[in-house]
Amino acid sequence: MPSMRATSDRPSVPAIKRLLRADDLAAVSEQVEGLRPRQAISLLERLPQRERALVFRMLPKPLAIDVFDGLDNPLQADLVHALQGEEVADVFARLDPEDRVGLLDELPAVVASRLVRALPEQERTRTSAVLGYPPRSIGRRMSAQIITVRPDHTAEEALERMRRNLDSAETVYTLLVTDDERRLVGALRLRDLLAADPAERVAGMLHSTEAVEVGESAELAARRCADHRLLALPIVDAEGRAVGILSVDDALAILEEAESEDAARSGGSEPLRRPYLSTPVRRLVTSRVVWLFVLAIGASLTVQVLERFEDTIAQMVVLSVFIPLLIGTGGNTGNQAATTVTRALALGDVTPRDILAVLAREARTGVSLGIIIGAAGFGVAALVYGVPIGLVVGLTLLCICSLAASIGGIMPLIAKRIRVDPAVFSNPFITTFVDAAGLIVYFLIARAVLGL
């Protein structure tokens, strides 16, 4: 019987590395034998690729299967490349079809084809069905392992049907109720089924439920599952036939991936799609370097604006002192608006059709912020550099906050309308645009107020 090792007593990564360097594989095996799946996953995520494969081989087979299933798809792909064919084929065959497809998307076509061909015929058919759905659709992430009952079934018959499929079903807390042609007519909660009289018909217990088509975006389907607080969301085809189910834990995993992707892109990089410590340095570089080049090119707009108003700066050098303050305030204001609206888009609170309403709200918000920040800027600048300079700084902050909030608010909606990820159009590009536009406003106000 494996020992129940506390989380705090799990082997540390440095300790495992020392044992591997000393070729003390017996000690490594002893260290990992009693781990729980979550502990083993955490350990493997922090090891380099070669050492990860060595440690994985030492896990007891039942634990190895659970651990492989719990790893991110890129780490699974690393293990596929490192392990022998028969080891991979056995673990691969034990995955659910939707989990297999996630792994296959990470593998070269030749390796993926070999793994699919090695599957038993029934599992190969189930996997091919999931592969037939569009990438990023809910069909790729749903589970086809569902329990269906008909309205004319009794509670006793429904319970017996559930017991027969207990080991293979994705979830038993929600049963799908379908007609003779497998069209979805409702859902049945396990609680209601257990409380019912054995002779009571399912038709009297079923309730209406949300459902999404199999081709819909996985993120939108997961959001709907979360919004309606469902333990499982039915998935149907174009004719309304039940083809699968999205469980709440899978929905949360999809939303976590989407949040990570948005956070990375709004910060000017590509998502890693794997734990940080298991990400090669070259992957960290490639995830950031392209964006840095794009933003550097965008920042050249700011340089050009400064060159255009070089004479103005020469006449009043003190104006250059406030440039970091102004462009920083504008960028932060725009980013705040963009982040708020992008989040509202994700939650379904707004749509691209609401662009005028969002523009009006963000313009008013920007003006209000500009009045507050501008008044503070005027007071400080006037005390140190005189009232005229204070007036220039205060008016510029008012204009920049109004402009940045308005642009930051509508850019995610425009991105959504043209089918671009709103996070891509968010913070980096808004900051670049607001920097250049804010400097133009600043120098135009300075010329008007100071008579330059």
TrEMBL record:
Main subcellular location: membrane
GO molecular function annotations of the record: magnesium ion transmembrane transporter activity; metal ion binding
Membrane topology designation: Multi-pass membrane protein
Entry's localization field: Cell membrane; Membrane
Presence of the UniProt keyword Mitochondrion in the record: no
Record-annotated CBS domain positions: 142-204, 205-261
Top-level taxon: Bacteria
Keywords assigned: CBS domain, Cell membrane, Magnesium, Membrane, Metal-binding, Transmembrane, Transmembrane helix, Transport
NCBIfam families (UniProt xref): mgtE
Similarity comment: family membership: Belongs to the SLC41A transporter family.
Function in brief: Acts as a magnesium transporter.
Record text on subunit structure and interactions: Homodimer.
Entry protein name: Magnesium transporter MgtE
UniProt source species: Agrococcus baldri
